[in-house]
Amino acid sequence: MTIVHLADRVPEMTGAEMVAALVPPPQFESATFDTYRPDAAYPSQQGAKELLQAFSTPGAPVVKGGLFRRAKKAPPVKPGVYLDGGFGVGKTHLLAAVFHAMPARRKYFGSFIEYTALVGALGYQKTVELFRGSQLLCIDEFELDDPGDTMVMTRLLGELVTSGTKLAATSNTPPNALGEGRFAAQDFLREIQAMSDSFQTVRIDGTDYRQRAVDGTAPALGEAEYERMMVDAATAGTASDDDFTGLVAHLARVHPSRYIRLIDGVDVIGLRDVVQLDDQSAALRFVAFVDRAYDAQIPIRATGHALSDVFSGEMLAGGYRKKYLRAVSRLIALTTS
């Protein structure tokens, strides 16, 4: 029987390990355009799939020249595509499909947090040197929460585009962007200023596919049921068992880029005595933790407050609304799997 406590883990990652981890997460390691299932009710999904298939195909159409002129290529397409849409419409699947489809010798796939953590570990110039000459950079969940990180990434991408790197990114909601839970493309383009001409915005409409098949509540287990499930999980593999408040506090001591190492080798995550979060920073760290657990497709079992209600109504009405709703969607999927 193997039970571990995530709050006891203090993972470290070297720059080399960070680079090696820049591949699609296990959930999307086999994602292709063929396995993406567009919702017929939202034609933009099929349109995005076709556009991204073309983006992933090397070469450009040739324009025939005159008798004494060489044939020349048509004006180049923009070097970057930016997937703008709500959560659960398949943006990450399509991003991973681009990664797998593009026949590039050097290509990287990571979350915004992973790239900024790499800059922090290696320094800006060494990071530029590392990525210079790469054919493709995929950035999942482009963040606009931290102006400093945003501008560092803007500068980095600008240098890579000029050296021939193609870019593909998905969006995340900036602070105070409310409404339908979708990222406003014009806000992103304004933030990255000079980079705007490098991206073609691809809008993807639709409803969260996770909510199509699961109930809208994350089940909260009784103590006896929780203990039984933990024993079963630990007998079959490795289960983690942590007090929710203690784990949330521990997340403040670990960089978000290392959360994936917190859950390394864990088959089931157990959380005792869940309470509703009222601190914005703690809530955002928990969102990042949920994202990594979802990427790894690790089921969660919990007691106390329902995880689908872990974020207060005030938080859900605030500037990080989209992040919290995405996390709730993922928590429901992980607690019912």
Automatic annotation (TrEMBL):
Pfam families in the record: AFG1_ATPase
Keyword annotations from UniProtKB, A to Z: ATP-binding, Cell cycle, Cell division, Nucleotide-binding
Classification via InterPro entries: ATPase_AFG1-like, P-loop_NTPase
SUPFAM superfamilies found in the cross-reference section: P-loop containing nucleoside triphosphate hydrolases
A biological process from GO: cell division
PANTHER family: AFG1-LIKE ATPASE, ATPASE N2B
Protein name stated in the entry: Cell division protein ZapE
Organism in which the protein naturally occurs: Microbacterium horticulturae
